[in-house]
Each structure stands twice: as C-alpha cells, then as structure tokens.
Amino acid sequence: MSAIVVRHAVQADAGAIAGIHVRGWRAAYRGLVPDALLEGLSIERREHGWRGLIGAARGASFTLVGEVDGDIAGFCSVAAPTRDADAPPWTAEIAAIYVEPARWRAGVGGALLERSLGDLAAGGWRRATLWVLARNGPAVAFYRRFGFAPDGASKDDATLEASEVRLVRALG
C-alpha cells in the first residue's frame, strides 16, 4: 500500500480538487439528490470556485489534499470559524471532504479528517461540526468512527431536495 501524504492545498491543485469534487458528488449522491443536479455539475465552474477559495485568506480556514503516489486522491476543506450562526465560539466546520471514488476505503478520507481535526485542536478550536445528507448512511458511519454525533440540528435543502443533519465532536 502506498503512503498517503497530506499537505495544504495550493492554487495549482484547484483542477484536481474540482474533478474529485464533481466525481465524488456523482458517485456518493446518486439516488439521494436529483440526477439532473449531478449531471449539471461542471468541473470548470468548480475549479474557478476552488481557485478563489484556496487563494482567499479567511481567518483560520484551510484546505488540505491527500496524495497517493504523487496524485491528489482527496481533499478536505475547513471553515474556521464555522458558517453556522448558532454555533458556540471556537467552533470550526468540516465544509467539504471528498475522495476520488476509485480510492474510497483506502484511508485517504480518514487521513484527511484526522489531520484536519488535529490542526484545528492545535489551533485552539474546541468543536468541529459538519453537515451530511441524512440518508447518506455510509458517510454518517464514516463520521461516527471519528467521534461525530448528531446535535439535533437539521435543515432541508431545496436545491438538493434532501435533508441534512449536523454532526459535532469535541476537539482536544
């Protein structure tokens, strides 16, 4: 098995991140959100968005990539502080984590999440949250293995035509 190298994303990673983002959505969310939404996703538009996100300085927010054999196999983007207005101070958010579908269950997502949570704890953040589709059982099970649990918050996303639940865990 090849080693997984986790590092901070740079502008040059935006295209690879965008491709993983779109392919990840299409593989993970088929049957959970409208097919038309998945087919309408654009790697080019996502790349433009990721270039802006990676290049912008926003507090303690960051994006990590996981490489296997020199290829980007996944990414994790962290919003610090969280985007949720109801969260207590010193709460960060795992805003996005996706792995190339061909690399699922190979440790990339776990390595990215562990590093993100470790970096947040080292930075003094007390809690981490994330939003997940309520019907996405594999994702919920993945996050539970890392200590995340529902906090009772949920929301309906009209664009996704799906409900999301918020998961939370303490840091440090």
Describe, in plain words, how this protein is organized in 3D.
The protein is of the alpha+beta class. The protein is 33% helix and 32% strand. It contains five helices and seven strands, in the order βαααβββαβαββ. The protein has a seven-stranded mixed sheet. Strand 4, helix 4 and strand 5 form a beta-alpha-beta unit. Helix 1 packs across helix 3. The longest helix is centred in the N-terminal third of the chain and has 15 residues, at 14-28. The two termini are 30 Å apart. The model has no long low-confidence stretch (mean pLDDT 95).
Please sum up the structure shown.
The chain is α+β, with helices and mostly antiparallel strands.
